[in-house]
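Model the whole thing, not chain by chain.
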Amino acid sequence: AQTVTQSQPEMSVQEAETVTLSCTYDTSESDYYLFWYKQPPSRQMILVIRQEAYKQQNATENRFSVNFQKAAKSFSLKISDSQLGDAAMYFCLTQGGSEKLVFGKGTKLTVNP
Amino acid sequence: EAQVTQNPRYLITVTGKKLTVTCSQNMNHEYMSWYRQDPGLGLRQIYYSMNVEVTDKGDVPEGYKVSRKEKRNFPLILESPSPNQTSLYFCASRLVAGGLETQYFGPGTRLLVL
């Protein structure tokens, strides 16, 4: 069975600083994908970044990057130059060949001006 | 505009009164799914569908039914709602099964069962 653990229920960061959200997972799938989604107060689910597990290179999307450690089953999200609009709930999730998406319980990020 | 729509967005009902939450996507996606979001539990998959007439259970299917008669629609049916089904529901779709395509989420349906 797949599991995703986000050990930080809440995090805060000062505007313009860097913050890292942690995520560990467990899966028996040989091929899988990893995602970070953000959910602002509007409740809309927005894709932040995605990573194919077979790729060693860490994905980057503008100010967002991941540190993917496959052996450790770790997939942390780094947000650089944090902005007020980054305040949201962040979910880490895995998608395996069984088609099932498994979500972590989320990390609420607060950005302080 | 590519989107997933859900209706209604908000619903208050009473125990036992059958209801349907509709979901429609305009992107010709094969894969569609339903999730519920509860505080402290994140999102949990209820049902998913890999194509027309193909559906399968997710993690929390009890008390729910789905159908996929057309590619664009994937309604969620609560035959006899109970208060423990009070939740925020999301429909999502993806281009193909097994790919790294972005999963598009609907805006959510907030359901209160009294």
